[in-house]
Write a structure and sequence with these properties.
alpha/beta; 521 residues; 11 helices; 9-stranded mixed beta sheet; 20% helix; Alkaline Phosphatase, subunit A
């Protein structure tokens, strides 16, 4: 055994003791961070499903609480150019909506929420929709069956939001740092659509999806940036709490002669076409030098996963299951699906996403650590999908990219506040799966992506990020739990394809990952 591995094992023992010192009974928090879904897109009519023939049926418990969803009147008399409409299970594959920082603000139009179709109609570049009315579509429990079943057994929120308007990168950064401000270097590149690369940053704040500069696998075309400031990683490290970000495709498929990592491993996407598994701008810790693993180095041993070593807490999903199989589950873990199963419209869909979610949750619920675990299912942005709820106003901004209240305007700005953080952004799904989760419960209190950060900080008493991080002002997730009388919610085993209940939980054996399902055809 190498000296590094020995030191890692020694330090791991110290972190294990620290892992057990928590405010709540939870010793493991697993955040499954998915892609591009508004609340209405998945839960508009919850708990009422259409239940057409030959599709997984959904029938809600009689005492299921109502959510702030679409009413028949809002569907029939919608202010947009087209009404909201149900997308059938056979229509799971859709185009990608316009979900840029400016475009989303224009869709919400000062609180009137009436420009979603126009914004889609005017979209240029990217994966544009042939029919701009698609932006008004929503699924129900016959397609996103597993998520509706989880909401029945456990707890969900109908009042949780993007911390700010915009796409994936700001959402991921707010999850781990409560902060999208702090760009320290900017390497221009040509965006995929050929638009002005300067659209990535406004007043040192990230508003688009530039790649992280501390990543060998970042592409040559998009712009690349680095970030300053602190993340939850440093706070957990200071408390000797084990943690890691685990992303599909992070493990290099090969290396160049100089050791540079190449991440071109693929998984089957739409129609079985190979799709690159790893997306660099979905990996927020790679933007910060202190938490990055630029060359995608592997952990020095399975025992070192979650602890300080050359991997620097950045891993492939396979490393998560290797650690779990050897009773080395990190206290805090962020899981990111390979692209084909992350739910992002345009290259993934809710059925492929369900495969990943159910396989992952089934295995986690079959582990000994389940009795002290919380699984949080959250999303990075709305993809621009219609949602009828105007977000509460928390942060104003006045950059050339803002448009919520007219060109260059988003609410009221205060002296000294960082710009380019217009928010809250769109409403998103948020579910908690845990023995301590309230059962068949809907939380109506305001939360956002940084509320997850705050929950982790509070549970391990790490302190706050500082520097105008949203962790100071974000709402608490405590309302989703019952720590006084909880701890007894039983596991819910589901079928990964149908989302319906299955008979027994699988056990995590020698295999290092959940079963591999090809995405739906």
């Amino acid at each position: 055994m190498t000296l590094v591995a020995c030191l890692s094992l020694l330090f791991a023992g110290n972190e294990s003791a620290a892992d057990s010192t928590t405010v709540t009974p939870l010793k493991h928090v697993i955040v499954i961070f998915q892609e591009n879904v508004s609340f209405d897109h998945y839960f508009a009519t919850y708990p009422k499903a259409t239940n057409p023939p030959n599709q997984p049926p959904f029938s809600a418990a009689e005492d299921t609480p109502a959510v702030n969803g679409l009413t028949p009147d809002l569907i029939a008399h919608n202010p947009n150019l087209a009404p909201p409409f149900r997308l059938d299970r056979a229509q799971a594959k859709t185009c990608d909506m316009d979900h840029e920082y400016t475009a989303e603000q224009r869709s919400y139009n000062g609180g009137r929420l009436d420009k979603f179709v126009e914004v889609m109609r005017e979209r240029k570049g990217g994966v544009a929709c042939a029919d701009p009315n698609t932006v008004m579509g929503y699924f129900d429990g016959n397609t996103v069956t597993a998520l509706w079943k989880y909401a029945q057994r456990y707890a969900m929120s109908d009042n949780s939001y993007c911390s700010v308007f915009g796409p994936s990168t700001p959402g991921a950064l707010n999850l781990i740092s409560g902060q999208s401000h702090g760009v320290t270097s900017f390497v221009p590149g040509t965006s995929e659509s050929g638009r002005d690369p300067d659209r990535n940053v406004a007043d040192k704040t990230v508003i688009a999806d530039p790649d992280p500069a501390f990543d060998d696998c970042s592409g040559p075309r998009p712009a690349k940036i680095t970030m300053e400031g602190r993340t939850i990683g440093e706070l957990l490290r200071a408390k000797h709490v084990s943690w890691g970000w685990f992303q599909g495709g992070f493990r290099p498929s090969r290396r160049e002669a100089d050791g540079k990592a190449v991440c071109d491993s693929t998984t089957p996407g739409y129609g079985g076409i190979p799709l690159r598994a790893y997306i660099p701008h979905h990996e927020p810790f790679q933007y910060f030098k202190q938490t990055s693993n630029p060359h995608h180095l592997p952990p020095t041993s399975i025992a070192a996963i979650g602890h300080d070593d050359q991997a620097n807490h950045q891993y492939d999903l396979q490393d998560f299951w290797a650690a779990a199989s050897h009773q080395n589950l990190p206290a805090v873990a962020f899981l990111k699906a390979p692209a084909a199963q992350d739910g992002h419209a345009g290259y993934s869909d809710p059925l492929d996403e369900q495969m990943f979610l159910v396989d992952t949750v089934n295995l986690l619920q079959g582990m000994p650590e389940w009795k002290e675990m919380a699984i949080i299912i959250a999303y990075d942005d709305s993809d621009g999908w219609y949602d009828h709820q105007m977000p509460p106003r928390r942060m104003g901004s006045a950059t050339k990219a803002d448009a919520l209240d007219g060109p260059g305007r988003c609410g009221k700005t205060n002296p000294g506040e960082y710009q380019g953080r217009c928010g809250y952004g769109p409403r998103l799904p948020l579910l908690v799966i845990s023995p301590y989760a309230k059962s068949n419960f809907v939380d109506h209190r305001i939360t956002d992506q940084a509320s997850i950060l705050r929950f982790i900080e509070d549970n391990w008493k790490t302190g706050r990020i500082g520097n105008q991080s949203f962790d100071e002002t974000s709402g608490s997730l405590d309302g989703l739990f019952d720590f006084a009388r909880g701890g007894n919610a039983p596991p819910l085993k589901l079928d990964a394809f149908t989302g319906e209940p299955s008979l027994m939980l699988p056990k995590l054996g020698p295999a290092l990952a959940p079963p591999s399902h090809p995405p739906t055809e």
